[in-house]
Amino acid sequence: MSQTPRSNSYEDYFKEINDIASSTDGENEEEEVTKTPDEGEEEINWLKEAGYEFVVSHLTGGRELTDEEIQGFTATLTTSQAAVVRRRVNSLSATIRSKQKHKVDVRDIFPESADSQSNRSSVTSSDGIEDNISAVPRRSHDKRLPSLYKGRGEYSMSGRRHEVIDNGGSDEDDYICFDPGHLLGVEIVSMQPKGTFNKHTGADFSTSGDLRRSVIAMPSISDEDIELRIEETGVKNTMQTAGLDREDDLPNFRILPDKLGTTKIADLSSADMNQIKSLALIELTSLMERNNVIFQRRKGKKKAKDSGIFGVSLNTLLDHDQKMRPFQTVPMVFEDMVQFMERHCLEQEGILRIPGSASRIKQLRQDIEEKFYSGSFSWVDVLPHDAAALMKQFLRELPNPLLTHEYLEAFAQVENIKERKQQLLALNLLVLLLPPVNRDTLKVLLQLLLKITQKKSKNLMGLSNVSMIMAPNLFLSPSSRSKAKGIREMEISMAAGTSNIVMMLIKYQDILWTVSSSLIHQMRHQNDLETQKKAREKSIMKFLRKDKSDVYKKPAVLNEGDFEDGVIRVQAPGLTKSCAAVKLSQSTTARDIIDKFRNNNLAMGRNKKKDNGSRGMGNFAEKDAQLFEVGGNIGERCLDPETCMLSLYQVNPNAEWIIRSEGAT
Questions:
Q1: Contact yes or no for 440/329 (Cβ under 8 A)
Q2: Is residue 567 located within the same domain as residue 469?
Q3: Do 487 and 620 belong together in one domain?
Q4: What is the rounded CA–CA span in Å between residue 237 and residue 249?
Q5: pTM for the full predicted model
Q6: What phi, psi does 582 have (nearest 5°)?
């Protein structure tokens, strides 16, 4: 469990609250009202954000779901993740029945037990084969949602029975059948072996020693596999601030190497991040429940201005900025504030702690509002403490907090998780859940705060001091700040808890902006199943009546000959060598492949000298060139230079491999 800062360090926290209260006096602060969603609204919002909007449509339309149907659309989740989804579905079902004042449903009083779920009844299929199916009540108008079946059985759709088989072996030999489709019909999509999955290479070699047969064998991962791949180094930092020696009580961690490469948030496409976000919400909810931590996702009401700078939402500011700079990811005004502080404020004693002049800050704010977008504003005469105070004011006045109304409480509750790695996992998931502009702005802020702490010998602002000062600006609502002078005793817990969270955000930011390999694996698994569904949807019955050995095959590898030989074809648009076949070995990395496209750089440099300044004979990969994995079971990923390419190729054989320079499209 995290250690709380010593009580004598609370001084910075409460001084900041008092400074905030005295500097605003209610001006420019509109009351912020947060509310708990209405009954059923939280479940609806949660299910939609988790990717189950089609489930909400069915439930709100009066359509009940069976256990088998819920199993079907949670097949790619871990046991605890699936349980979270099931509880949300059941809660929404009960709420809808209550609101509609239906007759009491026997399922609300006598929920189906595990034993009843396993009961089977013998039936005879249309082709005379006797088999077992789940004893699930069916209505004449019932349109089945996707289902997951384990063991030998059948399901019924439109009067036709379809067979599902089990080879009768152990758990390791079982096959499951899953269909992620919905609404338009139900079909069998794939039969998957639950083999020995190597989560670091993605390959399952239990089915066959043949490389082609091992590709994309990705059963659902277990709860224990959801983790951040980090390890503690065993070294702690000692912070010296204003003559006070104390440890920050935060161990150092490092990210463990991964054969498939470490993935940062910026490495994934926006479509992939949307899918990751849904998985992150499910896992965060599961993680909090496992640790008995309760938080509510609230909605805030604060009137946001449509124009100007202060009190304007991050999205509105960014939309305006992107008309001038299409690739801008952080509001320009905040970026300018941070850049000014990085250039002129890092060594200023007491930076962030000393409030600055109220009259100068008011004039500075007015000048920015009037002149920033006209290009006539200058930072030349701005004083460091005034700039720092203005930056904090900008963050406080956001109509939707930087950490958002939805997840502000969740960030604060992370302190109540006992194990440090689990705290980091929760913070990592919360970072993934933030809107892109909030996440990017938070990252810019944290980078600045880290640079300030690194200059503590000159500015006397260590990690603890900076965290104590920034916590009220990120976590307290305007209504709390307006009562600052009377909250010292009641806010001691918040002072310690939220300051520790800010401390972790600053210190572990590189780890927190990493996408865990387990979430990427789940995303790949979902995409593989969807690909299989599309490949088979035209002929369900024909697919089911194929030879059973064909049932177990994965989607065909597009270039099977290349795959068996371990050869990839790399594209490099714009370079002289625009395409090349590369033979992979266990030691081939992404960096090695890029190097093949710049092997002649030195020679070409010599040729340029001989040609008296001519441009030479070709174009080669520059220093910022990167290798991208595009398509297959992922949208697009910029690869870590240390990625083992053979392991990745086994996981995603149908991907394209493209070399591009940073910023190229």
A1: yes
A2: no
A3: no
A4: 8
A5: 0.78
A6: -125, 125
Block residue for tokens 């602002």: 461
Per-residue pLDDT, averaged over 113-127, amounts to 42
Give the 3-state secondary structure of residue 590.
helix
Looking at the fold, whether 184 and 333 belong to one and the same domain comes out as: no
CATH number of residue 443's parent domain: 1.10.555.10
- The structure tokens 């400074």 sit at 19
Q: Which of 452, 484, 515 is where one domain is finished?
A: 515
* pLDDT tens profile 599-651: 654 444 444 444 444 444 557 778 889 999 999 999 999 999 999 999 999 99
Residue 222 inside a domain? The answer is no
Statement to judge: residues 186 and 250 lie in one domain = no
In a domain, 59, yes or no: yes
Domain count, the chain: 3
Mean pLDDT of the chain: 76
Please give the pLDDT value at position 17: 82
**Residue 76 falls inside a structural domain:** yes
SS (H, E, C) 370-396: HHCCCCCCCCCCCCHHHHHHHHHHHHH
Answer yes or no: do 21 and 69 share one domain. Answer: no
Task: Tell me which amino acid residue 29 is.
Answer: E
- With a CB cutoff of 8 Å and minimum separation 6, the contacts of 231 are 253, 254, 256
Q: Is 608 found in the same domain as 583?
A: yes
CB neighbour list of residue 156: distance below 8 Å, 6 or more residues apart: 133, 138, 144
Let me know if residue 33 belongs to a domain. no
Using CA atoms, how far apart are residues 577 and 569, in angstroms rounded to an integer? Answer: 12
pLDDT tens digits along 220-245: 566 666 778 888 886 555 433 333 33
If phi > 0 it is left, if psi is from -120 to 50 it is alpha, else beta; for residue 9 that is alpha
Q: Which spans in 345-435 are helix H? A: 358-371, 384-396, 405-413, 420-433
Single-letter code of the amino acid located at 426:
A
Same domain, 642 and 499: no
Range of the domain at 560: 556-661
pLDDT of residue 75: 86
Helix (H, G, I), strand (E, B) or coil at 165: coil
Where does residue 242 fall: left (phi above 0), alpha (psi -120 to 50 degrees), or beta otherwise? left
